[in-house]
Amino acid sequence: MSKAAGNRGARFSSPPKAKLERWRVWVVLGGLLMLLSGLLGRGLYLQVWNDGFLQDQGDARYRRTLKLEANRGMITDRNGEPLAISTPVQSIWMSPRSMAVLSAGQTRPVDWKPANDDELIPMSLEEIKKLEKHLQLAPNELLKKLSASRKNSQGKEVKSDFLWVKRHISPTDAKSLMAMKIPGVYSQTEYRRYYPAGEVMAHIIGFTDIDGKGQEGFELTREKMLAGKPGSRTVIRDRRGYIVEDVSTIIPPQEGQTLQLSIDRRIQYLAYRELKNAVETSGAVGGAIVVLDARTGEVLALANAPSYNPNSRAKIDPSHKRNRALTDLYEPGSTMKAITVAMALNAGKVTPQTVIQTGNGTMAIGPNRVKDDHPVGAATVEHIMQKSSNVGTAKMALMMDREAAWNFYKDVGFGEVPHTGFPGEAAGRLRPWKNWRPIEEATMGFGYGMSVSLMQMARSYQLFAGNGEIHPVTFTKLVAPAPGKQVVSAKTAEQVRKMLEMVTLPGGTATRAQVVGYRVGGKTGTAKKLVNGAYSDTARVASFVGLAPISDPRLIVAIMIDEPSFALRYGGLVAAPIFSSVVAGSLRMLGVPPDAPTTNIFLPSQELEVKEET
């Protein structure tokens, strides 16, 4: 072989191996060591210095603090009769995150058991339909809830860990449901509020929501007292919701306290029945009644019509939930005349026998006029009260110094919240005395130009029940009466009490308020109603406030009927008969002995009956 050929062979031999730079090896190796060091350091940090992080992550997935519900306190009437009680019920729940809804036609094997805690529980569409039917859910309602998802903090779609399927079902229904042994369906004991008296007590007791929190009435105002304090139990649960173990001491719940009201359930039922009947038969928009213990100021009954059933979770008309006796304001009309007469008597401006000239029943005050429906001419103060003369009462009101009159109204409780402890009670409207015009000073004397609640009117008549004191009104049963405020003298109280009795006797406006075997007294009111800023020609508020028995008053009863039919617009026609029925039954329930013969009733013919309208 020639030298040239040898050189050509050398050119086509395999090339020399590339030389790997040593520094590159160290760079790659160093990088891997750094990554390994980082992982080891992170692991050491989490395990040693920040070991709570992993524990918290585990707890977030499997540790649960269960709330142990406290049994809500009972509400009773003054005699211990239950008005609100809590009964145990069952609520059904599931964990959508742990469930897997099978496709149509697929079923879970009869002998299915989870292989591990992370395995989803399969549920067929047939089982879902069976649950919906048993729990009376709408078709596909449960399927939609199980399939629903939400975004977590990382923006990922996840299903909920907990879902209430149906709350507050009877233990019997829950037992039959759990007997189906459908995996992933659980029951939990809760308490539901039950109101034995239903609509009769609705406006006093109120009701709770599905979570047991007070929403109206004393369920709301005494929430803290009634609710008690829930306990807790911290447990470890597996993915399927089963409790594996307790991990802390169980804190037992503190039961709610019992609330005893001043209400007498028997009188309450009677008052509600009579009021409801009168509202329905008179075609009225609504009505209210308050019954007070004349000696202590305790509320024995308070009812409104229309009412509602607090046991029903169905939608309730908001107007039916309104407590008219405490929140609605109206112009009291002639029921105010007893207060005006007491003010003038106590100030020494008149005596019961003082004669006041009312002329032909018309009095001019500037450009305005005050009129009587039945002119009485020259009449004594007693006669003016009995015949309900606007002119005579207006003249007595104008005898008073304006500031003194304002202070008297305030002492009686007008223009101020009654402080009964009930939510939403109204203060009424009593304008500052410096702004009074003469016509306003006169009309307030017979119940116009000011507004009150029915509770305020009932409270004001305490003036005449005893020695001229007014006691705080309360819904809580008292051991002893709270100290009262002396507003008028005992002599003034006795004088007005006699006049109130005359109103119910022949010649008065409230003969239908009479009660067989008992002497009673009171005052009617028939006031024109303000509609769109003007007094209506047809709409009236008919009312009556009275005492019984008049010889030693035990009860004060105030009634208000809102917009009865025009033919029954008078307080003496629609409100006074309610007083008669409620007082007759209540006095017998309380064991009050009669103070009059059973022949004491006299009802005049319709032609002779005195009716007033202010």
Automatic annotation (TrEMBL):
Active site residues of this protein: 334
Family: Belongs to the transpeptidase family. FtsI subfamily.
Primary location class: membrane
Positions of transmembrane segments: none
EC number per UniProt: 3.4.16.4
Organism domain of life: Bacteria
Function comment: Catalyzes cross-linking of the peptidoglycan cell wall at the division septum.
Pfam families hit by this protein: PBP_dimer, Transpeptidase
Domain Penicillin-binding protein transpeptidase: 287-582
Record-given protein name: Peptidoglycan D,D-transpeptidase FtsI
Pathway: Cell wall biogenesis; peptidoglycan biosynthesis
Record has Hydrolase as a keyword: yes
Lineage: Bacteria, Pseudomonadati, Pseudomonadota, Betaproteobacteria, Neisseriales
Stored InterPro entries: Beta-lactam/transpept, Beta-lactam/transpept-like, FtsI_transpept, PBP_dimer, PBP_dimer_sf, PCN-bd_Tpept
Domain spans labelled Penicillin-binding protein dimerisation: 68-246
Protein's cellular compartments: Membrane
Catalytic activity: Preferential cleavage: (Ac)2-L-Lys-D-Ala-|-D-Ala. Also transpeptidation of peptidyl-alanyl moieties that are N-acyl substituents of D-alanine
Alphabetized UniProt keyword annotations: Carboxypeptidase, Cell cycle, Cell division, Cell inner membrane, Cell membrane, Cell shape, Cell wall biogenesis/degradation, Hydrolase, Membrane, Peptidoglycan synthesis, Protease, Septation, Transmembrane, Transmembrane helix
SUPFAM superfamilies cross-referenced by the UniProt entry: beta-lactamase/transpeptidase-like, Penicillin binding protein dimerisation domain
